[in-house]
Amino acid sequence: MKKLYFNYIESFTGLSKDIWYLSLISLVNRAGTMVIPFLSLYLKKDLGFTMNEISWIFVFFGIGSVIGSWLGGKLTDIVGFYKVMIISLFVTGLNFIALQYISSFWGLCIGILVTMSIADSFRPAVFVAIKAYSKPENRTRSVGLIRLAINAGMGIGPTLAGLLIVLKGYNLLFWIDGLTCIISIILFYYLVSDTKIKPSETRLMHQNLDKNIVYKDFTFWIHSVICFLFGMAFFQLFTTLPLYYDEMFQLNEFKIGVILFLNVAIIVVFEMPLLNYLEKRLIPVTKHIIMSCVLLTLSFLVLYQNFWVGVLIISIVLMTLSEMLGFPYTNKFALQRAKEGLEGSYMAMYAMSFSLAHIFSPKIGLTVIDYFGYQVNWLVTAGYGLTAVILSYWLHNRIKQNL
């Protein structure tokens, strides 16, 4: 037991204070993000929108995420991640506060589109910040620490949000979302200093670098498609799976919450020690990506058996293990592949892969369920994972050949 304790503590050592500050900011920000998990309920119960209207609002949500990821990458390469992060979170905070005063369908479509375009410009910038504030040998654990903070925040936020909705209604959530964005970026400004090398200086050192090289990098395109397919499968966790738990197994909201909390709990307790262990084994990044896709595929295949409730636990454990490998190591691959001076463009393309999945995953999943049922949807979703496994092997072989 003592050895396990020291191994756990060791997994957090050697990380820079700036990475710890980034994690603190991520925790505050994500704990305050209370509207998003309850957005569909707010749109349906408070504003009275139809399911079709709600689905289109979420399409605009996804489109805004794609625009924000692209815009954030471009701006990061021009003005640097520091300014992008500050401006993005501050303006996002103001937008969240303003959203509560919009009640029309098209007003919300445009409002959500603008909000997400600004909010998700933060994502490529924070990925570049990880590279700037961590040593190469610590980058995977740095990503893991920030993911741990985000997941801890995701565990706190929805729980408090549910209580606040019962006591005070939805409007207070918009204020909390907005103010925590502003508070977290004020913390960032005072705790984390900007890097000494400016983007303009970096560009001068790489004047002959092709600014469109990311779009010509075929190996990185393969990686991006893998990330898209991974997202197509994984994001079912937040859309179709809770409906499946309810309709097929008659689980109430509390029991569904317990299963989803299991995902967060496993990550918070085990992800950092696991990454610390794997980093010492010097296993190629692409092998971890292959394994994450295999686990994700299995997590949906087991759901085809729908007569035993225990299969839901097996599925969520497999999915969580996949997540613990998939997100840190796809992120690490993108950071390693990024050319000096163009990190923002590479991380934007990485983020956009998941943003596109945000658009298509719920739409396709819910449509398949509507026409063919849940079991067919699990086979389709496992198909995304299997295709990602095949592409991951291809990626692994291309990297071995230095392509």
TrEMBL record:
Instruction: Tell me the GO molecular function terms.
Output: transmembrane transporter activity
Q: Does the keyword Transmembrane helix apply?
A: yes
The record's keywords, sorted A to Z, are: Cell membrane, Membrane, Transmembrane, Transmembrane helix, Transport
Q: Where is the Major facilitator superfamily (MFS) profile domain?
A: 18-400
| Predominant location category | membrane
- From the Swiss-Prot or TrEMBL record, state where the protein is found: Cell membrane
Membrane topology type, per the record?
Answer: Multi-pass membrane protein
Concerning PANTHER family, the annotation shows: MULTIDRUG RESISTANCE PROTEIN MDTH, RESISTANCE PROTEIN MDTM, PUTATIVE-RELATED-RELATED
Q: What is this protein called?
A: MFS transporter
Organism equals: Winogradskyella flava
